[in-house]
Design brief:
The chain has seven helices and eleven strands. By secondary structure, it is an alpha/beta fold. It has one domain: Response regulator (Rossmann fold), CATH 3.40.50.2300. The relative contact order is 0.16.
Length: 208
């Protein structure tokens, strides 16, 4: 059953689909899950009624189900799952509305905001806003070894050492994943998610 059309069936240099696949065949995939988070109706999907901010916020929540964190990231059974937003928050209340009353890894979900990276080092996911694009390398160094999934939506985010970049592709949202940065953070990213992404290796822009 088609959920959303693939934008011109675009592929990267290696022939892999760059845009997140929006056709569901058999088992549900990440795209379908994201639409469910947004409380989709088929009419609204066809109309393209979801804003870019809504889709990106839904991605942040759904990444919790496609990434494994090291045990040390959860010191106790009641440690909440924290999604941090660093910089000038583009989401408003959207992210809070999405995670309200939901759980991740059987843990309560909370959203934490700050302009200081040090305040977010206990988070599991940190979305680095475009307001911070001039200091990305410094931020990646500061988050090194913390087991944080860094997510952004700025040019060269993954090439510079960020783990997941949300990129516009033909009026849709595509994914870039730096697998080496994820490995350095002690994170295991689901092959299901990697199959939907442009994979970037290292910090020199190497791509597959």
């Amino acid at each position: 059953m088609a959920i959303l059309a693939i934008a011109k069936n675009r592929k990267d240099e290696g022939g892999k689909p760059f845009i997140l696949q929006y056709f569901v065949r058999g088992a549900a995939v990440c795209a379908l899950s994201i639409l469910c988070v947004l409380g989709t109706s088929q009419h609204r999907v066809r109309a393209g009624a979801y804003s870019e901010k809504e889709v990106k916020a839904a991605f942040l929540y759904k990444f919790t189900g496609f990434v494994e964190w090291p045990p040390a990231s959860f010191p106790s059974e009641d440690t909440p799952f924290l999604i941090g937003v660093l910089g000038e928050d583009p989401f408003g209340t959207i992210l809070d509305d999405i995670v309200r009353s939901k759980k991740a890894k059987n843990r309560d979900l909370q959203v934490k905001r700050s302009n200081d990276a040090a305040d977010l080092k206990n988070c599991h996911i940190v979305f680095i806003c475009s307001s911070e694009k001039q200091r990305l390398k410094a931020l990646f160094n500061e988050f090194k070894g913390t087991g944080i999934l860094t997510v952004g939506d700025t040019d060269n985010f993954a090439e510079l050492g960020g783990i997941i970049n949300l990129v516009p592709v033909d009026s849709r949202i595509g994914l870039e994943v730096n697998v080496d940065a994820a490995k350095d953070a002690g994170l295991k990213i689901s092959s299901q998610l990697l199959n939907l992404a442009k994979v970037i290796q290292g910090k020199d822009g190497g791509k597959t």
